[in-house]
Amino acid sequence: MACELCTHLETPAWSVVAATPRLHVVRVLDAPDFPAFYRVIWNTHVAELSDLSDADRAHAMDTVVTVERALRDQLSPTKINLAALGNLVPHLHWHVIARFARDSHFPQPIWGTRQRDSDLDALARLGLALPAIDERIAAALAAS
Amino acid sequence: MACELCTHLETPAWSVVAATPRLHVVRVLDAPDFPAFYRVIWNTHVAELSDLSDADRAHAMDTVVTVERALRDQLSPTKINLAALGNLVPHLHWHVIARFARDSHFPQPIWGTRQRDSDLDALARLGLALPAIDERIAAALAAS
């Protein structure tokens, strides 16, 4: 079965924010409770972080931190959540998610039990900040 | 409120496997469905990966990969799951978890919905492999 991250990098499920020769950064569009949700997707089909060379791993983690810093600086979230799971799609990708104390699942992981309804006003405010975050990530990757 | 990772590194919830001057590696003992579950805990109280210097971040991620490689080599898991969440305890720590296609939650994250009962024989076999994994991690950190 073809890997969907190898074959469908363009999808309505996300917006491609930036790329380097080795990876893409996308903003997730199909998790409405979590607008400030990005992924760093390694271009070649490897499953695990330890499959990368040291230099490639450094590039991947530098990029994860670039996204994290953009989220922290623009949103001052309660917490950043980082995860490389890949149980459903074993092609290396990092989730980088800004979490807030009153979001729908906090303090549970986004994959855990919902704690409350999302605050629609808060989601709308978050939405307004996303273009600046996208731009900052793109600028940082272009300069790296 | 005191941070529990600052004050209670010795706890029945895990076994300390190895340490460097900057971090500890522990094996989690209170997640019975997931025996091959380790954490890399940064010693000083920082919340986010991006709070570390480049050198410290490299040390943290090198250690995460050391644990990942020990799990892969000894267990050939279906997938490794990595996560730095910290919503409940905002003190930087990485979860490094060996996942198997028939474990209790696969392909869901361990924080997601249970999919089936754990296979007790499989858990028992996993348990037998853990001392060798602990030793390998300790040896790798001692040599680094």
Automatic annotation (TrEMBL), chains A, B:
Domain of life: Bacteria
A Pfam family annotated for this UniProt entry: HIT
Residue span(s) of domain HIT: 32-106
Gene3D superfamilies referenced in this protein's UniProt entry, alphabetically: HIT-like
GO molecular function: catalytic activity
Residue window of motif Histidine triad motif: 91-95
Coiled-coil positions: none
Annotated protein name in UniProt: HIT family protein
Organism, as annotated: Ideonella aquatica
